[in-house]
Amino acid sequence: MGDLILVFLITGFVTTMFAAILLTIYKRKIAINERVETYFGGTAIKNDESFQEKQKSELKQIFDQYWEKGTEALNKKVSKEDRKRLDSLLRDAGYPLKSAIDFRLFQILLSAGMGLAIFLFIFPSAENKTLAWVMVATMVLLGFRLPIFYLGKKKTARIKAINKAMPDYFDTVNLLLEAGMGLDLALKEVSYNIKGPLADEFLMTLEDMKLGKSRREAFYELRRRVPSHSFQSIITSLIQADQLGIGMAKVLGNLTLRVREQRRESAREQAMKAPVKMLFPMVFFIFPSLFIVILGPLVITLVTKGLGG
Hints:
Layout: H1 2-25, H2 27-40, H3 43-75, H4 80-92, H5 100-121, H6 129-178, H7 183-193, H8 197-210, H9 215-225, H10 229-244, H11 248-305
Helix pairs in contact: 3-5, 4-5, 5-6, 6-7, 6-11, 7-8, 8-9, 9-10, 10-11
């Protein structure tokens, strides 16, 4: 304890002395900056901030330039099948990156960076070089696969957000339809006021309709973009209602009730799964501890004194 207190005192003393030395060295510069700020209204600080922003923009331009060169070089090597598969994964995840080529380049850079880090920090001091090479290869493979796992997580979170937002979203659209507003305008108003992936998808659908697609084609594209079964069934019902000329307000009211029932059933299903999910932690973590606490004294008594004790 005394050694720890001594370490803290020495650290505090060294830090104080270092701060005092820096204050002594830059005392004149600090005074000049304070005077400039007082008389010129912070012009020096603004100039410094503008200089930092200029440096950041220059670095961003350099990064974008090399990134474009990398995508151009990689564009010729990625096959159409891989590009189509990556586009599908990016679409389901909400396009965290612009294109499949950008995603592939990010995979390669992350894989090379993780492998290089392990090679530089662990390989020189490793006694078993074979094991070190295995670690490097493992990190390279892991760096290449991590973005795929990230897209899977983004897809799951996006589907959950869409399913959660559907009842309130379609309830609001239904109210606007009953008030006399058209379907396209109601979707536009609700999408501008309710933020989230569901609103973004409908805004993209409305933009497709502005560019010349029919409502049926835009809704088919929307259904293809969102990998949620409940949402796809709702869009299919809307497409059929639009083709048959059924009132959208009545259809949306029934669909909203169905969505709420599906969410209620899903909650019940998750509640029924809870005991099964709790079984493994109880068997491997809770029960052994209980057995040790309850049977431990008995085992110690039997070992030390035997059955006759």
